[in-house]
């Protein structure tokens, strides 16, 4: 009995709770009546309560029962009939602002409507006079949405006779109320004006509305503005449309075309044909138009730009802007070639595709990236050109960008190995950084010293390095190229990686890390292939190949094959002669005659093969040879490269706000680009309120990115509206 009393003394009290209450934790119940009044009971004791007229107290109860660790946040959310994210937001608001932060904010009318009868008459008068919707909105001091409503694009609801009084909450014109999935106003008048030759480009008109799809892509605009893409294209091609030197009008101007490609890339359709899989109205909202250009129109306009043959100027203008804006990023340049396989029927030169280890018809482009792996320059390589040959072209292009006094480092792989070229690059004012192609003797273990290096991401790298001067022969006269050799030792496998450079950094770990970071350009290719259509053909036009280009002579290969067949006969005769010498003299004599005949045939075939030239002009071998016309492809590459660089900038801005940014920054950005958002014009600002993402931590990261972007005070292209970004509350 004593034992039973002792046990009873440590037992918890019975959870006596009102009838109809809901269990949300051990001994914790929620009771709430139909009017909204209720309370929380802990082991039968009323601990929190609220009245139907006090929703703030109800939220406080939910917050405190979680903060006191009495219940799980998920169970409280289910009991209160809200999302778990809502409970988390209430807790954050309470922690930051106390009880006052939990009070609900009334989202109703804040000021009387501006659409008085006089204002409607003024709007219609200006519109009849030929002004655009944007011009009418600016002249009358109302939003473009209000202009469309006044013109009848969106019907006005019935309103009281005195329009200066506060309208009811259901009126769409109430400030702060946005129409969900609002459709842009038809731009029939502007299209007719473009057809009539009196419109250079349709001005952007913002479609205000709530939960507009794909509007999260507007997050890229500040970073895109930093690349100078639109300004560079305008400087190269002009703001208007020119064909054959004659100025023409167009509804879709240069700005619209470029932004259309940018936004299509961001939402996963980098090729022009991908426009058929995108909602033209959704992309049109991003452009400030009623709809995006169709595939046929987009390809036609890009073909017109390609007809001016100024794509290389566009790439160079973008590179110059990058150099001027980020001079610290171009002291180290990575150079590599990218092979684009061709699967058509044209007679295109072959190239080796390293990633599939095959030789096939293909075009080769040479790319230069900065030290972060962001695209800088690209050009079409000549058929059969080596990386060493492309390095010689790099000198003039890079020197034109950086000026005569800069001394950049060119980093490349073993494909560019040429000690003679290294000496020329050094004389031209460049440093080189590459792997040693022909490995010499291994360094002794005693030559290696432990080094530490902290990279751009804050990671500490440990290297076992040896460092000494070497002399590499580069011609038959025994002349040598003197440079620095840094060798990295992998203690686990014993493998030694030899690096050659002309840089004189005191810390060899800096050089080793720069060399091993060459994989950034490989990552650039990989990501561009997967998400930005790097291997896309983009154009089907071909141009004649150089008929005087020297190529391998197939007759030479055929003659060499015949000589090989004769050599095989001799080898067979020698084997048989040696065996027959033990048999009978008559057979040996016959074989000896066969051997002499075969030797004579071999000499004749070798002489014939030697007389055939190893290379002949292309016109003699393949008179129908052509190459892909890359002019339109290069324009698209320039836009995609700027878009990739913009995404890279956003990923770096995202790093302080997202713990997993190193691995997931780009996937998070792709989710944000495809997110819906609200668009609202207030005074001279365009507010972009992005919908919450798939997880609270990802939403918080984008909210932090929005603050970074707001500091840039970027203007929406083609308007005077400053972009203001935020994330909508749940």
What does this structure look like?
It is a single chain. The chain is α+β, with helices and mostly antiparallel strands. The protein has 5 domains: 14-102, no CATH class; 117-177, Arc Repressor Mutant, subunit A (Orthogonal Bundle), CATH 1.10.10; 190-312 and 637-727, no CATH class; 413-517, no CATH class; 564-612. Helices cover 41% and strands 19% of the residues. The strands form 6 sheets. Strands 8, 9, 10, 11, 12, 13, 14, 15, 16 and 17 form a 10-stranded mixed β-sheet that branches. It has a 4-stranded antiparallel β-sheet with strand order 1-2-3-4, with helices on one face. Strands 5-22-23-24 form a 4-stranded mixed β-sheet. Strand 3 and strand 4 form a beta hairpin. Helix 10 packs antiparallel against helix 14 (311-325), helix 19 packs antiparallel against helix 20 and helix 22 packs across helix 23 (661-673). The longest helix is centred in the C-terminal third of the chain and has 27 residues, at 554-580.
Map the helices and strands.
Blueprint: H1 2-10, E1 22-25, E2 28-32, E3 38-42, E4 45-50, H2 55-67, H3 73-80, H4 84-97, H5 117-128, H6 133-140, H7 144-151, H8 188-195, E5 209-212, H9 221-227, H10 229-237, E6 241-243, E7 246-248, H11 254-266, H12 280-287, H13 295-306, H14 311-325, E8 332-341, E9 350-353, E10 358-369, E11 375-380, H15 387-402, E12 409-411, H16 419-427, E13 431-435, E14 449-454, E15 460-473, E16 480-489, E17 496-501, H17 508-516, H18 519-531, E18 542-544, E19 550-552, H19 554-580, H20 585-611, E20 615-617, H21 618-621, E21 626-628, H22 631-654, H23 661-673, E22 677-682, E23 685-690, H24 696-710, E24 722-727
Helix pairs in contact: 2-4, 3-4, 5-6, 6-7, 9-22, 10-14, 11-12, 11-22, 14-22, 19-20, 22-23
């Amino acid at each position: 009995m004593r034992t039973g009393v002792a046990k009873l003394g440590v037992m918890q009290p019975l959870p006596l709770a009102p009838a109809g209450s809901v269990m949300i934790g051990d001994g914790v119940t929620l009771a709430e009546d139909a009017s909204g009044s209720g309370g929380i009971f802990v082991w039968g004791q009323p601990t929190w309560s609220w009245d139907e007229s006090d929703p703030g107290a109800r939220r406080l109860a939910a917050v405190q029962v979680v903060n006191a660790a009495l219940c799980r946040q998920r169970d409280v959310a289910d009991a209160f009939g809200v999302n778990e994210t809502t409970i988390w937001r209430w807790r954050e608001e309470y922690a930051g602002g106390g009880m006052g932060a939990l009070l609900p904010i009334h989202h109703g009318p804040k000021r009387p409507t501006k659409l008085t009868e006089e204002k409607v008459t003024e709007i219609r008068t200006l519109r009849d006079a030929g002004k655009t919707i944007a011009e009418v909105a600016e002249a009358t001091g109302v939003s473009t949405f209000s202009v469309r409503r006044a013109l009848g694009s969106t019907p006005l609801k019935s309103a009281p006779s005195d329009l200066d009084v506060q309208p009811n909450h259901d009126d769409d014109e109430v400030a702060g109320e946005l129409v969900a999935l609002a459709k842009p106003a038809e731009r029939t008048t502007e299209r007719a004006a473009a057809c009539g030759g009196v419109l250079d480009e349709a001005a952007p008109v913002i479609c205000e509305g709530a939960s507009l799809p794909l509007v999260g892509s507007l997050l890229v605009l500040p970073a895109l503005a930093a690349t100078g893409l639109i300004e560079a294209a305008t400087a190269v091609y002009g703001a208007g449309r020119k064909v054959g030197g004659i100025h023409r009008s167009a509804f879709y101007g240069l700005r619209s075309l470029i932004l259309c490609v940018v936004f299509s890339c961001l939402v996963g359709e980098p090729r022009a044909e991908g426009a058929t899989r995108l909602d033209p109205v959704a992309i049109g909202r991003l452009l400030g138009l009623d709809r995006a250009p169709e595939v046929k129109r987009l390809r036609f306009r890009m073909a017109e730009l390609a007809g001016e043959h100024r794509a290389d100027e566009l790439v160079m203008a973008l590179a110059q802007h990058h150099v001027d804006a980020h001079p610290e990023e171009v002291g180290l340049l990575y150079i590599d070639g990218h092979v684009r396989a061709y699967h058509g029927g044209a007679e295109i030169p072959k190239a080796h595709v390293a990633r599939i280890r095959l030789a096939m018809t293909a075009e080769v482009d040479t790319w230069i990236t900065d030290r972060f792996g962001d695209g800088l320059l690209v050009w079409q390589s000549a058929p059969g050109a080596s990386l060493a040959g492309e390095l010689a072209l790099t000198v003039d292009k890079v020197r034109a960008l950086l000026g005569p006094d800069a001394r950049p480092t060119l980093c490349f792989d073993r494909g560019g190995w040429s000690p003679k070229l290294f000496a020329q690059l050094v004389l031209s004012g460049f440093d080189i950084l590459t792997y040693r192609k022909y490995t010499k003797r291994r360094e002794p273990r005693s030559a290696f010293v432990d080094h530490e290096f902290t990279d751009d991401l804050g990671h500490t790298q440990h290297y076992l390095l040896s460092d000494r001067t070497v002399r590499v022969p580069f011609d038959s006269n025994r002349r040598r190229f003197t440079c620095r050799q840094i060798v990295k030792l992998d203690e686990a496998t014993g493998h030694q990686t030899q690096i050659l450079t002309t840089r004189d950094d005191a810390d060899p770990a800096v050089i080793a890390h720069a060399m091993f970071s060459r994989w950034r350009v490989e990552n650039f290719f990989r990501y561009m292939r997967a998400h930005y259509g790097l291997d896309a053909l983009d154009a089907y036009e071909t141009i004649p190949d150089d008929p005087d280009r020297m190529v391998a002579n197939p007759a030479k290969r055929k003659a060499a094959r015949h000589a090989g067949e004769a050599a095989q006969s001799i080898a067979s005769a020698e084997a048989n002669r040696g065996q027959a010498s033990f048999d009978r003299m008559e057979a040996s004599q016959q074989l000896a005659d066969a051997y002499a005949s075969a030797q004579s045939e071999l000499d004749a075939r070798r002489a014939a093969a030697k007389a055939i030239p190893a290379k002949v002009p292309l016109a003699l071998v393949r008179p129908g040879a052509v190459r892909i016309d890359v002019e339109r492809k290069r324009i698209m590459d320039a836009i995609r490269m700027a878009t990739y660089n913009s995404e890279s900038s956003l990923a770096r801005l995202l790093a302080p706000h997202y713990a997993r940014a190193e691995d997931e920054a780009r996937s998070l950005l792709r989710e944000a680009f495809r997110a819906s958002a609200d668009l609202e014009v207030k005074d001279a600002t365009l507010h972009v309120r992005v919908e919450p993402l798939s997880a609270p931590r990802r939403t918080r990261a984008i909210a932090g990115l929005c603050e970074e972007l707001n500091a840039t005070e970027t203007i929406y292209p083609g308007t005077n509206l400053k972009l203001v970004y935020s994330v909508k509350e749940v």
